[in-house]
Amino acid sequence: MQPENDTWVSEFLLLGLSKESELQSIIFGLFLSMYLITVFGNLLIILAISSDFHLHTPMYFFLANLSFADICVTSTTVPKMLLNVQTQSQVITYAGCITQMHFFIIFSGLDIYLLAVMAYDRFVAICHPLQYMVIMNPRLCGLLLLVSWITNVLHSLLQTSIVLQLSFCKKAEISHFFCELNQMIQLACSDSFLYNMVMYFVAVLLGGGPLPGILYSYSRIVSSIIGISSAQGKYKAFSTCASHLSVVSLFFCSGLGVYLSSAAPHSSHTSAVASVMYTVVTPMLNPFIYSLRNRDIKRALKRVTGVPVM
C-alpha cells in the first residue's frame, strides 16, 4: 500500500489527547473502562436480540446491527490508542493509519445510515401502524442494510484513494488519537485544496444524506403524535421512539460539536477531545439508553444474564 508520491513516510505519530506524562495512566484506565463497557454492553444487546424470538422484528434487527457498528467504530480507534499509551509510543505505520482511517469511515458512516433507517422504521410504525409489517418486510430490511454497507464501503474507498494521492512531510504528526480523515488531509505537504473540496462534497452528499431523512421522519412522527387525542396514546407513541431520538440527538450534537471546534484556529487538540464523544462515549451509552427505557430489552437481558435490569 505504498503511495505514489514524491515524499513517502513509513509512519505517523499520533499525539493523542495529552502530552502530560502523569495523565497517561488516567487516560489509559478511563479509555480501557469505556472500551470494555462498550464492547460488553453492545454484545449483550446483540445476544439478547438474537436469543429472544419476540425481538426478531425490524426495529431490533437494525438495533443489533447498530450495536455491531458501535463495537467496530470503537475497536478501530481505542485499542491502538491504549497500546500506544501502554508502550509509551506514538507510532503508527503508514499502512496501519490508512487501514484505520478506512474502517473508521465505513463503520462511523454505517452508524449514521442505520440511525436514518431506524428513524424511517419508527415513522412507519407510528404513522402507518396497520401496514407496518407489510412495508417493513424482511426483504426491505435486508435491502436497506445492504445499501447502507455498500454506500459506506464505496465512500471509504473513495476517501482513502484521495489520501493515497497526497504527499506527506517527513515528520508527520497527527494531533489526534487516531488517523482521522480531516487531520490526514491537513497534514499533507502537497496542495490539498482540490482534495479538500472533493472530500467535503462527498462527505456532505453521502454522510449528510441521512440527516434530512431523519428530520423528515421525525417531523411526520411529531405531527402524528400531536393528532392523537388521548394523553396515554401520545405517551405510548412517543415512548416507542424516545430511545432512538436520544441516540440520534447525542450522536449528531457531538458530531456537530467536533466540526464546529475544528473550524476554529489552532483547534486540533480541542477537536480530538470533542471527537471522544461520538467515537467512544456515544457507542458506550447506546446500550444503556436502549435498555433502560425498553421493557422488551430488559426482559431479554434478564433471560440472558439472569440479572434483573433496572
TrEMBL record:
Residues 41-290 form the G-protein coupled receptors family 1 profile domain. This is Olfactory receptor. GO terms for molecular function: G protein-coupled receptor activity; olfactory receptor activity. GO terms for cellular component: plasma membrane. It is found in: Cell membrane; Membrane. The keyword rRNA processing does not apply. Belongs to the G-protein coupled receptor 1 family. CDD domains: 7tmA_OR7-like. The chain crosses the membrane at residues 26-48, 60-79, 91-120, 140-158, 193-216, 237-260, 272-292. It comes from Vulpes vulpes (Red fox). Keywords: Cell membrane, G-protein coupled receptor, Membrane, Olfaction, Receptor, Sensory transduction, Transducer, Transmembrane, Transmembrane helix. Putative odorant or sperm cell receptor. The keyword Disulfide bond does not apply. SUPFAM superfamilies: Family A G protein-coupled receptor-like. The gene is LOC112908136. It is a multi-pass membrane protein. PROSITE patterns: G_PROTEIN_RECEP_F1_1, G_PROTEIN_RECEP_F1_2.
